[in-house]
Amino acid sequence: xxxxxxxxxxxxxxxxxxxxxxxIDVPETPLDDVSLIDKWAHTAMYGVTCGMVWxxxxxxxxxxxxxxxxxxxxxxxxxxxxxxxxxxxYCTGGRRTGDLLDFAANTLGITLAAGAGTLSAWYRAKHYxxxx
Length: 132
Fold this sequence. Notes:
By secondary structure, this protein is mainly α. Helix content is 77%, strand content 0%.
């Protein structure tokens, strides 16, 4: 675990923040009147978090293992988002609700980050070949 804290400190901080903010009561704001603001927030939270996972991975590893990125920067966050939505629905006593559209927004953010991360990895590999 110590090596993960050294290699991925910002990613772990963002993941922790998602878990914490998923279970606290959110105060009402003037932005609540904006259509689908909650879905945009979910897309942004998961997109930024997964983008940071990709960035820290690409910065800390010279050799890219695509299967590792697929599991830890795509599958695991989607699973985490699903678990959080289920816990909100069934374990918060009605204070929070699980929502299929929230899960879809989470997955959209993750997918956008994976696309950007894949392009970054491809560019990096192409650039290193040109320099070698």
